Amino acid sequence: MEQIEFSDFQKVKMKVGQITSAEKVENSDNLIKMQVNVGDKTIQVVSSIAEWYQPEDLLNFKPIVIVNLKPAKFRGELSEGMLLTAEVEAEKKVVLLTPSKNIDIGAEVF
Q1: How far apart are the first and last CA of the chain?
Q2: Helix H or strand E encompassing 73
Q3: Of these four, 69, 80, 94, 110, which has the most CB atoms within 10 Å of its CB?
């Protein structure tokens, strides 16, 4: 595994977000498009989590969000961030990472 400098890690800006809307991306089996409040603004995030989550189950969920990625398009939909996930290998599924305590939306993660 390649090691990075601490200064590289410092470039990544993460915040606690809150999903305010979610819907499946048209013509895709695995993409969900979400509006995510990250405190100072709302960003759109497209994530390949539809195998494990239904859009209606994501409303008000508070994921950890990388907020300073360069925007990218997936199936024509703009994604302005990335939700942090982890693989539960024994169950062959992916879960969204969220704070263990009730933390304010927009709180910086470091």
Answers
A1: 22
A2: strand 72-74
A3: 80
Number of H helices, E strands in the chain: 2, 11
Query: For residues 94 and 71, what is the distance between their CA atoms, to the nearest angstrom?
Result: 23
| Lookup: tokens for 65 | 């969000």
Cα distance between residue 32 and residue 46, in whole Å: 6
Q: What is the pLDDT along the chain (110 residues), one digit of tens a residue?
A: 999 999 999 999 999 999 999 999 999 999 999 999 999 999 999 999 999 999 999 999 999 999 999 999 999 999 999 999 999 988 889 999 999 999 999 999 99
Strand ranges in 2-71 using DSSP code E only, listed in sequence order: 14-16, 18-24, 32-37, 42-47, 64-66
How many beta carbons lie within 10 A of that of residue 98, not counting itself? Answer: 15
